[in-house]
Specification:
23 strands; two-stranded antiparallel ribbon; 36% helix; nine-stranded mixed beta sheet; alpha/beta
């Protein structure tokens, strides 16, 4: 049985989704003696040292060793960073070399000489075949064929591939490269993203094996030519090198909970930017190991409007797996916030509304939980509500949520929200109306142009949609709590992850490079020089 965990619309305090996932895994494994494996994402060092902290769970429901889990682990994110930046370097290098060399010189340098003879590499032969040139001897190409083969003619203004690093650094959100004299004034503006926002991370999470990963990597579109032709990783000749850098990262990492239940930690795409789920490989391996009567517990980032929708409409499509049950993690304090309670901040004292019984706030805020149950039902999934309880919660508040949630529960058969054959605009509108509760969608001119371009280009119009939106509201506006009404979703831009296999619309200003807060978590992190014990990491 495959279980998927997500939470209600989260608050700055977090609702304890990872803690509940680990706790559920331990209850099944230790208390009920069932075969069970949890599948979790690997945390990014950006949030770990920034404002969120680690993601190993909490209390006695943790993945251990916690320090390894939250820091480098086996270096998967570093491997993705290396692969991403190798590709970025090749893009700019290719633009530079094509601008400074003749067709003849460029062709001569592109072809390797073996024992005094020029030879095409495998990836170059594949490019020749895509161009319709059925030749394998480099000396037999005509001048036109040489030019077509050697020149990608990348339009620098269309490059969408950014360099990445696994650190929150707001000053890298916009940079200028090529400033050295050796680059001959070939400057352009670009940016850094955080490493887990790389499409390569999404590819790793959605791949089913090495061959599938290589296929997905080869399809990544990084720019267009001046004629409007998509430029892919395969065109740049770097597919094999990226796969080599990821040869170990494709394997899930085996860890354990405090009580000894096994956990696969693999991949870590952000849910507001990408699809926000651990890897398909980890899920399939876990299902094989637990057997027919076992359980696999995984989680989807943020709420049903973000993590679950993408889990079902993207991950389930590519994995051919569907969950048997959904667990929604909720807290009384989060429901009070959605019911109109005062704003709360991580690390600050909670106002009295959150530490004293207030049934009216709970009742008003239940609409948010009810909406997440309703969204889950749209996918035909049975729902369990897990209340992550705190000492300030009262029996009356817990009983009220139980009563209201039971009225909204239902059992149906799994189904996708939309058909892949429908238009991109229709898919976006379907998600906005049925999941977010919007009245409609407003496509900005740039977004509509991008949609038209993608639908004209082969295969891109039939891809699933991965909405890039705030996780702090069911709408596009993080200030709108509860269940927002009477709003239009603005689609600012639409971008393509051809390798991972989805199109992602941007709902407002979505940053792919977080910034450090005034008081980052690293103020509390240290290592004892005598014992080697790490302090302050949670």
């Amino acid at each position: 049985m495959n279980k998927s965990n997500f939470e209600i619309t989260p608050t700055p305090l977090g609702e304890g989704k990872s803690t509940t996932t680990v706790g559920l895994c331990q209850a099944l494994a230790v208390q009920l003696q069932k075969n069970v494996i949890a599948c979790l994402r690997q945390p990014s060092q950006g949030p770990t040292f920034g404002i969120k902290g680690g993601a190993a769970g909490g209390g006695y429901s943790q993945v251990i060793p916690m320090e390894e889990f939250n820091l480098h682990l086996t270096g998967d994110i570093h491997a993705i960073t290396a692969a991403n930046n190798l590709l970025a370097a090749q893009i700019d290098a290719r633009i530079f070399h094509e601008a400074t060399q003749s067709d003849t010189d460029l062709y001569r340098r592109l072809i390797k000489v073996v024992n005094g003879r020029q030879e095409f590499s495998k990836i170059q032969i594949a490019r020749l075949q895509r161009l319709g040139i059925q030749k394998t001897d480099p000396t037999t190409l005509t001048p036109d064929e040489i030019s077509n083969f050697a020149r990608l003619d990348i339009d620098p203004s269309t490059v969408t591939w950014h360099r990445v690093m696994d650190t929150n650094d707001r000053f890298l959100r916009k940079i200028c490269i090529g400033m050295a004299a050796t680059e001959k004034k070939m400057t352009r503006e670009t940016q850094f993203d955080i490493a887990v926002a790389s499409e390569i991370m999404a590819v790793l999470a959605l791949a089913t094996d090495m061959a599938d990963m290589k296929k997905k990597l080869s399809k990544i579109v990084v720019a267009n030519s001046r004629k409007g032709v998509p430029i892919t990783v395969e065109d740049l000749g770097v597919t094999g090198a990226l796969a080599v850098l990821l040869k170990d990262a494709i394997n899930p990492n085996l860890m354990q909970t405090i009580e000894g239940a096994p956990v696969f930690v693999h991949a870590g795409p952000f849910a507001n930017i990408a699809h926000g789920n651990s890897s398909i490989i980890a899920d399939k391996l876990a299902l094989k190991l637990v057997g027919k009567n076992g359980f696999v517990v995984t989680e989807a980032g943020f709420g049903s409007d973000v993590g679950l929708e993408k889990f079902c409409d993207i991950k389930c499509r590519y994995s051919d797996l569907v969950p048997n049950v959904v667990v929604i993690v909720a807290t009384i304090r989060a429901l009070k916030l959605h019911g109109g309670g005062p704003n709360i901040a991580s690390g600050a004292f909670l106002p009295k509304e959150y530490t004293q019984e207030n049934l009216d706030l709970v009742r008003e805020g239940y609409c948010n939980l009810g909406r997440h149950i309703e969204i889950s039902n749209k996918f035909g999934l049975p729902v369990v509500v897990a209340l992550n309880s705190f000492s300030t919660d009262t029996e009356a508040e817990l009983a009220l949520i139980k009563e209201l949630a039971e009225k909204d529960g239902a059992f149906r058969c799994f189904k996708f929200l939309y058909n892949l054959e429908t238009s991109l605009e229709n898919k976006i509108e379907t998600i906005a109306k049925q999941i977010y509760g919007a009245d409609g969608v407003e496509f900005k001119e740039n977004a509509r142009e991008r949609i038209n371009l993608f639908e004209k280009q082969v295969r891109f119009g039939n891809l699933p949609v991965c909405m890039a939106k705030t996780p702090l509201s069911l709408s596009h506006d993080p200030a709108k709590k509860g269940v927002p009404k009477n709003f239009i979703v603005p689609i600012q831009d639409v971008k393509l992850s051809a390798g991972a296999g989805f199109v992602y619309p941007l709902l407002g200003a979505i940053s792919t490079m977080p910034g450090l807060p005034t008081r980052p978590c690293f103020y509390d992190i240290d290592i004892d020089a005598n014992t080697g014990e790490i302090e302050g990491l949670s």
